[in-house]
């Protein structure tokens, strides 16, 4: 749960680092909440669609910030976030990069 709290506390922090565990735990929490809201919108389309859109907009910037921090921790620069746009292999490269172990600490704080 601490990783998810850190996800929200550092929602505009693009300069520090995020560990593998911190990234994937926060990703799991946001994925589960998004999936539950998505399934609920299938049942109650008009009533919960607004909540689903608000949630999606709310996690957009923190998710990008966390991904950039994780890329930095894996030894990559922020433009590596665009690798997901490479057809067929982009997501595979992205997931492999996000699963890489942390590089030795260069003095940048880990959040």
Structure description:
- This protein is mostly helical.
- The chain contains 4 helices and no strands.
- Helix 1 (2-9) crosses helix 2 (20-43) and helix 2 packs antiparallel against helix 3 (45-73).
- The longest helix is centred in the middle third of the chain and has 29 residues, at 45-73.
- The chain is globular.
- The mean pLDDT is 86.
What can be said about this structure in brief?
The protein has helices spanning about 1-10, 20-45, 45-75, 90-100. It is mainly alpha-helical and about 110 residues long.
Determine the N-to-C terminus distance: 14 Å
| Oligomerization category of the chains in this entry | single chain
Mean pLDDT score = 86
Number of helices: 4
Which structural class fits the helix and strand makeup?
A: mainly alpha
Beta percentage is under 5%
Number of strands: 0
Helix-strand string: HHHH
Rg: 15 Å
Overall, the morphology is: globular
Low-pLDDT runs of 5+ residues are: none
Helix content: 55-70%
Mind describing the biggest β-sheet?
none
Describe how the helices and strands are arranged:
Layout: H1 2-9, H2 20-43, H3 45-73, H4 90-99
Helix pairs in contact: 1-2, 2-3
Which features characterize this protein?
111 residues
């Amino acid at each position: 749960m601490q990783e998810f709290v850190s996800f929200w506390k550092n929602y505009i922090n693009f300069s520090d680092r995020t560990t593998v565990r911190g990234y994937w735990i926060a990703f799991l929490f946001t994925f589960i909440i998004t999936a539950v809201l998505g399934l609920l919108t299938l049942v109650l389309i008009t009533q919960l669609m607004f909540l689903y859109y608000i949630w999606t907009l709310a996690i957009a910037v923190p998710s990008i910030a966390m991904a950039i921090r994780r890329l930095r921790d894996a030894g990559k620069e922020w433009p590596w976030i665009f690798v997901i746009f490479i057809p067929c292999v982009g997501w595979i490269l992205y997931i492999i990069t996000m699963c890489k172990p942390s590089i030795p600490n260069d003095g940048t704080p880990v959040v």
